[in-house]
Amino acid sequence: MQKDQWATKIGFILSSAGAAIGLGAIWKFPYITGMNGGGAFFLLFIAFTIIIGLPILIAEFIIGRGSQKEAVSAYKSLAPKSGWSFIGHWGVAGSFILMSFYSVVGGWVLIYSLMSIPGLIIDKGTNYEQLFGSITGSPLITILGLALFILINIIVVSFGIKNGIEKSSKLLMPLLFVFFIILVIRSVSFEGAMEGLKFFLQPDFSKITAENVLYALGQSFFSLAVGVSVMVTYSSYLNKNVSLTSSALSVSFMNIFVSLLAGLAIFPVVFSFGLEPAEGPGLLFIVLPEAFAQMPFGELFLSLFLLLFLFAILTSSFSMLEIITSAFTAKKQRSRRKVAWIAGCIVFIAGIPSALSSSTMENFKIFNLTVFDASDFLVSNIMLPAGCLFISLFIGYKMERTLVKEEFLLSSNLSVGTFKAWYTLIKTIVPVTIIVVFLTSIGII
After folding, report:
1. I need a labelling partner for 124 at 20 to 30 A (CA). Which of 195, 206, 251, 401 fits?
2. Residues 119-146: tens digit of each pLDDT
3. pTM of the full predicted structure?
4. In which band, very low, low, confident or very high, does the pLDDT at 168 lie, cut at 50, 70 and 90?
């Protein structure tokens, strides 16, 4: 049994939502939607989140609490003397690669946050696209941001679940929602905002390709933080009086809601100021200053929003470092603090090539992608879907059905019929959909 546990149900839900929301919903969702057709992509994303992502999230919760162990040990405990523990190792590896490039973006947000406090971002005549390029094009600035971001992660994860991750999530996550709603209200009031709303909310399925569908599936997994067993580790700290299904529904709803807010906040500004919706990873950093510059006390609001955004990113990265740390402290009584420091330093070293992808290593390509983009593609479109496929097969065909049923129904008002429907979904529809989407995207089907 894990010694550390979530103190409250709301603490677990907000921390899980924080792990899910982070960069996935706020940073990545707007630009990946902009690059993949707008409204039609958004509808695909919602469908995949509800039909595929939510059942997988419930499955990860069941594996975690059913075993009461972190990712690697969970599969060993539930399927002893079998090879299924590779799913846990897959998750740790995926979290490691994910955090290596994720922390680079976290470093960008940290630098922007520090610059906004003395009012160094918003200024008349500033070209925000050039500003973003100058920051990401500086090796010193990007590596410094990466180092500071990982340092914060190490410190918080060193304190553990209750004293580190949960307390901060309960305080700051609600504030992020409030500021996002304020930003949406301002964004939709710009002249020309309607074009942005049409692009985001009016689907044009003629723009959808097999590759777009794969990206939508990958985005649903990325934004829910499923496929790398992060939620297995988080739910292993959960006691038995919490409904896993209602918790998963809450996390999924918040994820879709924040993605909706992100789109409503970003795309009206994009079209109002003649920006390009397919701008790419820098979209958010160009649009936010444009929007806040048009508000009274814009610099102050930008600073507060960036700090809250930084927190949302940190809650996600906490979960990644947590799965790595817990994997190496589970068997042997190693010091959590020591392991967190070692793991953090290794992630920092691994993240340097991604940090330099816009500067000294911009011409170094892997399959015609920079290290940053290649890492993102590998995790989002290969490792996460494959991890979700493995988890669905494990819970549907290997884990003891009686335990799965018990964890699914525990502390909930759901019927046995609901469990049967979910169990059928996780055994058939989920794995088949993942396989078909992936094979179609690479041209086999």
Report:
1. 195
2. 788 877 788 889 999 999 999 999 999 9
3. 0.87
4. low
Q: Is 177 helix (H, G, I), strand (E, B) or coil?
A: helix
As separate numbers, helices (DSSP H) first and strands (DSSP E) second, the chain gives 22, 0
pLDDT digits (tens, 9 = 90+) for 312-326: 788 778 778 877 887
CA-based end-to-end distance of the chain: 45
Residue 413: phi and psi, rounded to 5, are: -105, 20
Residues 6+ apart with CB under 8 A from 423: 396, 401, 404, 405, 408
CA pair distance 210, 218, nearest whole angstrom: 12
Residue among 358, 82, 112, 388 at smallest CA distance from 223: 388
Domains of the chain, CATH where assigned: 9-441 (1.20.1740)
Residue 218 token pair: 């990958």
Which two structure tokens, joined as six digits, stand for 395? 């819970």
Instruction: Outline where DSSP puts E strands in 90-143.
Output: none
CA distances from 70 to 67, 281, 312, 342, 427 (A): 8, 32, 23, 19, 23
Instruction: Tell me the residue type at 302.
Output: L
pLDDT for the residue numbered 182: 83
